[in-house]
Structures are given as structure tokens and as C-alpha cells.
Amino acid sequence: MASELSTIVCCAALAIVLRWGVSTFPYSGQGKPPRYGDFEAHRHWMEITTNIPMSRWYYNSSLNDLDYWGIDYPPLSAWHSYGLGRAFKIILPEAVKIKTSRGYESSLLTFLMRMSVSLSDLLVPALILFHVMFFNPEKKLAPWVCIMCSLAAPPFIMVDYGHFQYNCVSLGLTVLAIVTLLSNQFSLSAILFTLAIHHKQMSLYHSLTFFAYMVGTLVMKRIDVLTTFRVGTVIMSTVGLMWLPFGDYWTFVLKRIFPLKRGVFEDKVGTFWYVFDRFVPVKGVYPDQIVAEFCGISTIVLLIPATLNLFMKASTVEKGQQVTVLRKTFLLHLFNSSIVCFLFSYHVHEKTIMLPGLAAVLLLPFYPFASAWFVVVSSLSLYPLFLEEGSHAALLLTTAFFILVAQQGKIFDSSKSALLKLAFIGSIGGYIALILGLHFVTPPQNLPHLFQAGIAIYSFLHFSLFALYCHYLQFSLKYSTDEQKPTRKSVGSGSAKKKL
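That's the Alpha-1,3-glucosyltransferase sequence above. Prediction below.
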């Protein structure tokens, strides 16, 4: 027991050191007036939420200029800003004074903001809990490998602790919702995932996975009317509590959270629409409403096959190793739904790759090589963003550390295919070539962002192949009719406890 706990503590401590190491690099918009960046946006939200009535947080006024980082995240995120802002009013009041604190920067503020991310980080304990409970002994990986690789995944570290955001809250809530759902605690899972959506709307990328699993399990398989009613009640109650302060103005708040005017994609991002726009211009050519509707329809159509597959598996009777197959199907669909949404939905940021990245680290116990490869690719796809902010060295260092941990944990040895290993080396080599070109090759005058666009397109090709591969994995999973009921060791935490 002592060795198990010491392993977890060491992994968590190293994860915290990594995060605070990245925090020493520049944040988004540092020293770049007049709008600065996401660091200033979150500071400004603390200023707004602690100085004007809650019912006016999302409305334009003389004290709340929506053109200057107006709140555009769901209510729980705004309440999170309010809680942090109240603490800041005590410790550093000048940092949240209404209007006069715009663009406020100081070393103490930087430390406090970085500390607020660390104290809000639900993702670290949630990932540890997941890998302890659902360790897979089939791959013969030491339990610490999956835990450490998950905690060291660069996108989670760089976006929150480098760029500056609080994605660790919604992502952590999502992982906790997954843990409770796979442990058959449906009501608690529903509350946690509803909170995740209300902290950051991008959590909707995972919503179909939860919906298909819950409906298939509770309605079709168990015909459990009472639990279904209880789940529906807690969801509606949670949603009601989130939106109650905004009364009849909830439609206006929704428009703030889901704006159409920002376009089909944000900057240079490895999505289908960005690549398509390079050849057939879409952004700024067609009305945003039409483009958004087309993106929504195409995304839903592409989500249907994998969602029906999960629904059908969740609807069947669990027997023997079917429990493990269903868990794999759930996690694969979590990846497939989020990568499809990333590639084809409307208004996608490059940082949104964290959603399929979250599913990838949860799949590490089952598909270690492919999962680690995806994490590396998703990390390097963010290079232009962090180059612009001056923290690209931190991205390269954290990515190198992740690869080192994976190598020491023999993740890359989990594949016996020499061709696949060569493909991995070639894949990373392509990124290295593009990054070197970005630094040392002068692009043509008519293509000033040639290498940034090249990284986005190269990433899109990778993401598309991963999407196809994981759809293949999900559809190829079959129930075995002659397998014996598995022991706790094969599907639960018992084997994890033995090996930790």
C-alpha cells in the first residue's frame, strides 16, 4: 500500500513541477496592449463579476464593454471567475478594480493567476483516479506509465499553465463523470458532466458519448424507469440552477456563448474547413449563419454511425468480457465524437484539440502506441500558437519529456510493427522539418504564413487518419459469447493495486 501511494505521489509531484516550470514562460498577450490576451480576459472577468450584479454579467453597459473581453463562457465559468475575484479583492484589490484595472500587470498578479489555475486543477486528481480504477493488465505496462503520460501530456499543461486558461476544470469534471458513469453511478455522472458543459461549452464535443451510453444502458438494456427519471431530474435541476440568475435573458446569454460572428475557424487550425478554405474560400465569403448550419449538419451526419454503434453495444446484456469491450467502445467513441467535432464543426480553436487529446490519454491503457502518438501530434500542432507567444521552447521541452516517459515506459515497444515505428519517426520528422522551415526559411512574399499553414494542413492529415483508425477500432470490437465472466483483476482496480 505504501509503495502504491508513493508512486502516485511521485507522479503527481512531477506533474506539478512540470506545470509550474511552464508557468515561468510568457502567457498569452503578455505586455501586448491594447487587448493583451487570454490572461487579461480571465483577469477582466474577475473584475466584471465582482463589481456588477450577476444578472448583468453578459450584458453591454458603461461598466461592462462586451467588445473588451466580454464574458463568453457558460455560467459556471463566470461563477468560477467570481469566486477567484473575491479572493483577489482581498489579496490584490487593484487587480480587479472596475475599469481602472484594465491591462494591469505585475509579478504578484502573475503569481496569483498562475496559482489560481493550480488550485482549480481538477484534471490531475481525476486522471490519477481513472488510471487507478481502470488499469488494463493486458498491455503489460506498469501502472505509473499511464498515469505519468496522462499527467505529462503537453496540451493540458501548455494551454492552461502557459497560454493561460482554466480548461483543467471542465476536463477534470469530464473525467470524473466518466469514472462515475463506468462505475454505474449515473446520477452523479450526469451532474458532473452537466457542470463540465456549464464551465466550458467545448465539453459538448463529448455529450453524444454520454447520451448514447446512458440511454442505451438505462432505457434499452435495463428498462430502469426510476434511475432514468432520477438522471433526468438531476440534469434539469443542475441546468436550472446554472441559468436561474439570468431569468428571461437566457437567450441573450446563449448568443454570447455560441457566437456566429467569429467565423468557421480561429486562425490557422488543422480542421477540414481551414484546409478546404485554402482551396475554396468559405470564411468571409458565405454568411456565417449558412456556414454554421452546414457545419452542424455535416458534423451530426458524421457522428451518427459511431454513436449508433455505442448505443447498440450499451443496449445489449453485459456478460463476461463484454464489460471491458463496452468500456473500450465508450472511450473510443469519446475520441471519435470529439475528433469529428474538432475537424468539422463551426468556430474551432487550435486549443480545442485538448478534447480528443483527453480521450487519447484515457485510451492509453488499451491502445498505448496510438494514444501516445496522437498526444505528440496534437502537441506539435500547437507550435505556431506558442511561437507567437514566446513559449515555444516550453512546448518542445514538454513534448520531449512526454516522449521520454513513453519510451521509458516501453509504450513504443507495445507495437511489434517495425513499419509503424518508422511511420511514427517519419511523422515527427515532418513536424521538425516544418518547424525548422518556420525559423530558418524565408517564405515567398505572397505566402507569408506558409509554414504555419503547412503545420495546420500536416496536422489535419494526421487527425483525419487517427479519426479513421479509431472508427475502425470501435467498429471492429466484438462481443465474445464464450468468454467467462472476468475477475475484478481484469476490469477494475484490483490489478492496479497489485502492480502500483
